[in-house]
Amino acid sequence: MAKTISTLLIAFLLLITFPLWIGLAAGLFGAIAGVAGALLGAVFGTFGAIVGALGSAVGAIFGGIFPVISVKPITIILIIVVIILITRSRSKSVK
To answer: Per-residue DSSP letters for the chain?
Structure first.
């Protein structure tokens, strides 16, 4: 008889406190999702800031904000080709 009453009491307490357990589970899930969202936001925000800084530097070079270092894209391409040709000629002469 005592087992039955204690089982019924435990079942009754669980039934009464069920919304509390649902609320705690939802709160825990929300906290975990919030922390994950904050971490992702920090990572992608840092990535966006780096890309933005590089983009503004490239824009400054090609856009002519600083006329001394403003070059046309064809000039950059030619410089890259010259560097490739110089490194290839050095690697062939080493052999």
So the answer is: -HHHHHHHHHHHHHHHHHHHHHHHHHHHHHHHHHHHHHHHHHHHHHHHHHHHHHHHHHHHHHHTSSTTT---HHHHHHHHHHHHHHHHHHHHHH-
